[in-house]
Design a protein that fits this description.
four-stranded mixed beta sheet, binds zinc ion, 3 domains, two-stranded antiparallel sheet, 10% strand, alpha/beta, 307 residues, globular
Amino acid sequence: MKIFACSHCRHTVFFENVQCLNCQKELGYFPERGMLALPQEGLSKCRNYTEHNVCNWLTRQVGDYCRACRLNRTIPDLSLAGNLQRWWRLEMAKKRLVFSLIELQLPLDDLQFDFLVPGAQPVLTGYSNGLITINAGEADDPTREKMRVDMNEPYRTLLGHFRHESAHHYWTVLVKDLPAFRQVFGDERQDYQQCLDRHYREGPLPDWREQGFISAYASMHPWEDWAESWAHYLHMRDTLQTSSEFGLGRLDTQTFDDMIQDWSRLTFALNSINRSMGISDLYPFVLGKPVLEKLRWIHHLLEGHQR
Ligand SMILES: [Zn+2]
Ligand SMILES: [Zn+2]
Ligand SMILES: [Zn+2]
């Protein structure tokens, strides 16, 4: 993520800010132009900004949705208590994903989101045919943290879910017809439902780390290996961008090996800082050689796409 500054007074502001704390001007984000003090000629607030305050993006058409909110197909029922807050948290995570997708010049046209709150029926986070479904119940920290512990995962966040599910979409856009995929991630033609059933019946492969997977879930099926690796690549890319904006590490134009070198130095520092504060590691992963090769493949794929 970039570090933004208010276009009026240059005071630094977060990506999520709706007001500059220095000059008090109202702010709006417009892709490629950054954080703009309002009003701005030719731009107006997204409808979700005006009506619900769950968005801080701008759009060209008065009364229209911004580029990110336009992707919503279903939002939580706002007449129920707590749902506006859940939706706000989902939007914050989604905006960070969309920021990265725009930077990577990935198409957004055929992507949609359903944010569903579980009621009588459970909601499964997942992807199908251009549609990302997110269980809005995970916007509640205690719920999500309990799931993380129950499923024995080192890391579980809303942003992580968005990044993971986007992987399934961009697999169909960028990868589907590339035979090289199978050499790196395995043969995705094996029956997905069978693999899923086995995963939940028998648990993950006991030696998934040695087998070269980034997470236990990645060992379930080549599609999930791809999705976990893609999400991980986006974590790295975004966090490295943030740190380089603060003068820690190099800026963009770097090779994959440079990136990994910066990444191991940065995450060692960040984990040490967290330990000094008595909190768990910011980056609870170890990258083995096979995982690095998967990440390298994604790096080159995206480089090729941007060219
Ligand atoms: Zn300002
Ligand atoms: Zn919006
Ligand atoms: Zn998945």
